[in-house]
Amino acid sequence: MAYEIDKPEEQWRAELTAEEYHVLREAGTERPFTGEYTDTKTTGVYSCRACGAELFRSDTKFDSHCGWPSFYDPKDSDAVELLEDHSLGMVRTEVRCARCGSHLGHVFSGEGYPTPTDQRYCINSISLRLTPDGG
């Protein structure tokens, strides 16, 4: 897939820390309950750490107790790309930034999530950058 922002991997490596590169460009995962935004209540916009695209608003963030920041809906329907993921011996839905293709996390659907959309976007904190409202 062609993305609006398309850089060679060497450039991504130079612009991101090793941890950011591992998650964003190699579809890694940060350890649960270790990310800087897991328990954040600050209002604002969460953007892609790799390219700055606005992805989620804080008013869609909720406490899912899964170990990662969780949202029930992206800021705009075209802000993220959803792909079937067959890694780790299971079928999941990967969430990527639609602007640069960076890995963000996974989305899970089903009744039982306390959200208006019955969805839980579990997103790695290291994939995001929060801009507080008014900031």
From TrEMBL:
<keyword id="KW-0560">Oxidoreductase</keyword>
<protein>
    <recommendedName>
        <fullName>peptide-methionine (R)-S-oxide reductase</fullName>
        <ecNumber>1.8.4.12</ecNumber>
    </recommendedName>
</protein>
<dbReference type="GO" id="GO:0033743">
    <property type="term" value="F:peptide-methionine (R)-S-oxide reductase activity"/>
</dbReference>
<dbReference type="InterPro" id="IPR011057">
    <property type="entry name" value="Mss4-like_sf"/>
</dbReference>
<dbReference type="InterPro" id="IPR028427">
    <property type="entry name" value="Met_Sox_Rdtase_MsrB"/>
</dbReference>
<dbReference type="InterPro" id="IPR002579">
    <property type="entry name" value="Met_Sox_Rdtase_MsrB_dom"/>
</dbReference>
<feature type="domain" description="MsrB">
    <location>
        <begin position="9"/>
        <end position="133"/>
    </location>
</feature>
<dbReference type="Pfam" id="PF01641">
    <property type="entry name" value="SelR"/>
</dbReference>
